[in-house]
Amino acid sequence: MLGSLGSVSPARAGPQHWGHLGLCLWLTAAESLDCNAVFRPPDSFQWFMREHVDFPKTSATNDHLYCNVMIQNMAACKLTHTFIHAPASQLRTICTSRGRCNLYNECDSNAAYPVTTCWLNRPPHPRSCVYRGIPQIRRIRVACIWGLPEPWGSFPVS
Description:
The chain is 26% helix and 24% strand. The protein is built from five helices and eight strands; from the N terminus they run H-H-H-H-E-H-E-E-E-E-E-E-E.
């Protein structure tokens, strides 16, 4: 609902006369912005850090064990998951000065980062997921909103 416009004609009303949804619709129409950017959850960068960043890398006997322990700690059984082994300060710059972004707010890093990609080895059994870990140094792609990486859309770039 756009709310009361009072004596202002709807055709001339700007976002100052509308509610939050009206503002988002106006911004989208006027500037082709993504409405999700307006309503970014306040802790999504911390969520990104918790889900995808392990710096310095947790010590493990091998990368397979590393993946098994890390994903078990997340209480999830995913087909694939990537952990980035770089400090938050470097990852923030991908969304601003050290990355190339597309129209969908997905930004590719200019620099390569150490990552470990975990692949599910076999169909999961209840409470038992076995992973194959592959360490690499490669460029990454992150979803960015308000200049910060987000937990969805993070993956290595070919």
